[in-house]
Amino acid sequence: MQAREPTTPDQESVWDYPRPAILEPTGRRLTVIFAGRTVADTVSGHRVLETSHPPTYYFPPGDVAMDLLRRVADTSGSFCEWKGAAVYFDIVVDGRTAARAAWSYPRPQDGFEAISGHIAFYAGRVDEALVDGERVTPQPGGFYGGWITRHVAGPFKGGPGTMGW
Q1: Could you tell me the CATH number of the domain that includes residue 85?
Q2: Strands 87-93, 84-85: parallel, antiparallel or unpaired by DSSP?
Q3: Is the pLDDT of residue 42 over 90?
Q4: Which of 28, 72, 112, 146 counts the highest number of beta carbons within 10 A?
Q5: What is the pTM of this model?
Q6: Residue 1 neighbours by CB under 8 Å, 6+ apart
Q7: For residue 4, is it within any domain?
């Protein structure tokens, strides 16, 4: 494991996040844009915090253009030890498709009921993901869905050599 990055007063270290993961509401403005369309925009989201991971943000379905999402039939093998079984969505806008760019937990496990049916997005599979107007960097590796901003310090799990952390 790499050394813990130093933090500034306006940052959180992902190494201070708990394990098991927790869920908390956030009033930050969260926005997802794909193919020139705002797919999701909220100030009523939730974030999941887990040791070594940047926050993963969940949007209430009323703040998501659900008509742009297409549920993916095959979701085999997608189970989170904290949240349960996930379903995935493609985003389809004007002939462009972002495959498996979003997911949801229809029946989340205890402690995560507040995100039942909420939608999360992979920042690396959309054109823009923003937190309070700041463009997000996707969590490394493509498997996890955390959003990195200037407000979090790592190192972050997900890249090569980090699976055993």
Answers
A1: 2.170.150.40
A2: unpaired
A3: yes
A4: 146
A5: 0.95
A6: 155, 162, 165
A7: no
